[in-house]
From TrEMBL:
This is Cysteine hydrolase. Residues 8-184 form the Isochorismatase-like domain. It comes from Cohnella endophytica. PANTHER family: ISOCHORISMATASE FAMILY PROTEIN YECD (PTHR43540:SF7), PEROXYUREIDOACRYLATE/UREIDOACRYLATE AMIDOHYDROLASE-RELATED (PTHR43540). Keywords: Hydrolase. It comes from the Bacteria. The lineage of its organism: Bacteria, Bacillati, Bacillota, Bacilli, Bacillales. Transmembrane segments: none annotated.
Length: 191
């Protein structure tokens, strides 16, 4: 069997103002994301930002979708691509050339061009971080595993409103389909 070196990308998901603002009381919350972003850039690992946004008037949102049909209840504002709530948080701003993928559902693949972008770049391994562990990270991990991507989850570069759900996912569920590492352990493995 030939030696295969993975072609990886760091996916930073839902680190947009409307979602990250739920954790603004914790000034350290965004630090692991920033650390992972800086390490990826130093090691020439492509970075792809993923955000949630809808067209004006939310025509993509079905009233049967329990999560998105109550979007106004979340206090997320309008969540259109040009709205401030849909912009990437200032602590992890994309550089020119780092794509921002817009998705329409929980998984980073749902309603987006993420897979086309990954395939065109020959990316076969994904390093995942995002808000929330039980939302975008879980959904993206499951779909990416079904698509045969190699997966790493950066456990401390994932946030969830429920710490116990975060713990169960990162310690018991994710390891079935991904390597689960802290940002520091991942950076050490890059050396």
């Amino acid at each position: 069997m030939p030696n295969h070196r993975p072609n990886a990308a760091l996916l930073l998901m839902d680190l947009q103002n409307a979602i990250a603002s739920r954790f603004e009381g914790n000034s350290a919350a965004m630090l692991p994301f920033r650390k992972a972003l800086d390490a990826a850039r130093r090691h020439d690992i492509p970075v792809i930002f993923v955000r949630l946004a809808f067209r004006e008037g939310f025509p993509e949102v079905s009233p049967r979708n329990k999560s998105f049909s109550r979007i106004a209840d979340f206090g997320w504002g309008r969540m259109t691509p040009s709205d401030s709530g849909a912009q990437i948080h200032e602590s992890v701003q994309p550089l020119p050339g780092e794509p921002i993928v817009t998705k329409l559902r929980v998984s980073a693949f749902a309603g987006s061009d993420l897979e086309v972008l990954l395939r065109s770049r020959g990316i076969d391994t994904l390093i995942l971080g995002g808000i929330s562990t039980s939302g975008v990270v879980l959904s993206t991990l499951r779909e990416a595993a079904d698509k045969d991507y190699g997966l790493t989850v950066l456990s401390d570069a994932c946030l969830d409103g429920d710490p116990e759900v975060h713990r169960v996912l990162t310690e018991k569920v994710f390891p079935r389909q991904a390597d689960v590492l802290t940002v520091d352990a991942w950076i050490e493995a890059l050396a």
